[in-house]
Amino acid sequence: MIVDDLVRTPAAVAEAERWTAHNYHPLPVVISSAEGAWVTDIDGKRYLDCLAGYSALNFGHRHPALIAAAHAQLDRLTLTSRAFVHDQFATFCRELASLCGKDLVLPMNTGAEAVETAVKVARKWGYKVKGVPHDKATIIVAEGNFHGRTTTIVSFSTDPDARADFGPYTPGFKVVPYGDLAALAEAVDETTVAVLLEPIQGEQGVIVPPEGYLPGVRALCSANDVLLVADEIQSGLGRTGQTFACDHEGVVPDMYVLGKALGGGIVPVSAVAADQDVLGVLRPGEHGSTFGGNPLACAVATEVVGLLKTGDFQRRSAELGARLHAELGALVGHGLLAVRGRGLWAGIDIDPALMTGREACERLAARGVLAKDTHGSTIRLAPPLVVEPAELDWAVEQLAAIL
Ligand SMILES: Cc1ncc(COP(=O)(O)O)c(C=O)c1O
C-alpha cells in the first residue's frame, strides 16, 4: 500500500480480511463517514468518491432530501411485506412508471433480482403472449455483459471469474458479440422472447456501442415480436446525462431494469417497468420478495424519482461530463490509451506499460481520489452527479500526476 500516513487503517483492513469471504479485493481504505461527493476514512483522510457505489450514489452521499425522506419513514413504518398494501407503495409505483413512460412497475431489492424478474417475465410473456412452445424460450444477451451474480445470470456471463466454477448452468440463453447487429439478427429465431442488453456496458469498461446499434436492436425486436429489455441498472437514472442511456438514441425498450441509484444510496431498491401487455402476465404467487417494495424503500425511491423529474441531475451530468471527457481526452497519448463514456461516466484505458488499473487506483487513493479498476488497466470514473467542476478538475489533475 502506498498510503503511509494512515494509522488505524491497516489493522481495520486486516480485521475485515480475517472475518469475510474474499469475494472482493477492496482498496485498503476504511470509510467511516461521507457527505456529497466526499468520504472520510477512519484516519480522518478525505477522498473524492469517483466510483459513487458503482452509480448507486448518483445523488451523492446522504443527499438531504433523501435522508429526510428516510428519517420520516423510519419514524412511521418500515416493513409490511406485500401481504398487505402500505401507503407509500402506490405513489412510488406511479411515479416510477411515469418516469419510465410505462404502465406498471414491479419493485425488488437488488439489481440481480430485477434482472431475474425480467428474465421470468420475458419467458412467461413468450409462452402466454407470443406462443413459444413450453420450455423452449431463448433470450439473447451480449458478450461482455454484466447483469449480476445469481446462478442463472452467471450462466450467460462471458467472464470466466464470474462463471467458471458455478455450473451446471441455466439453459435458454444465446450470447452474441456486443454492438454487432448482423450477429444479433442471425441469432433471432421463433423461440426468441427477449434481447437483454446494457445500453452501455459498465463493468466491461464503459463500452458505448456503435451509433445506430441500439435503434437497430429496437427495430429488429419490433419486427420479430421480441422484447427489448434494457438493463439500465448502472447506466440509468441520470448517469449518462439523460434519464436513461437509451434516451441518447431515442430508443424505448419494452422493459427497463433499474436498481442502484433508485435506492438513493440508502436502501437497496430495484424494479422492472413495462406495459400491461408484458408485466401483466404475472399472477399472484409467481414472483415476489419479502423486502421488495417495502415502505422505507418506496419512500426513498419516490424522492429519487422526484429529484430526477427536475432534470437537474441529468443536465449536470451532461455538462460536467463534457468537461470530464475533454480533460480526459487531453491525456490520451500521455499515459492513457483511450477514453470512452457518456455524461459523468468514463472508462479510461491506462497504458499497461505504465501500471495496472489496480496500481493506478492505489496511487489515486494515496492522492485522495477513489476509483475502481476493471479488467486489466481499465478504470471507471463515475463521480456523484453533485460533484463540483473544480473538484472534477482536481481529480483529473491527480490522474495526470500519477500517469
Ligand atoms: C448493468 C448491471 N446489471 C446488474 C447489476 C447487478 O446489480 P446488484 O449488484 O445490485 O445485484 C449490476 C451491478 O453492477 C450492473 O452494473
UniProtKB/TrEMBL annotation:
InterPro entries: Aminotrans_3, Aminotrans_3_PPA_site, Class-III_PLP-dep_AT, Orn_aminotrans, PyrdxlP-dep_Trfase, PyrdxlP-dep_Trfase_major, PyrdxlP-dep_Trfase_small. The keyword Repeat does not apply. Belongs to the class-III pyridoxal-phosphate-dependent aminotransferase family. It comes from the Bacteria. CDD domains: OAT_like (cd00610). One of its GO terms (biological process) is L-proline biosynthetic process. The gene is rocD. Keywords: Amino-acid biosynthesis, Aminotransferase, Proline biosynthesis, Pyridoxal phosphate, Transferase. This is ornithine aminotransferase.
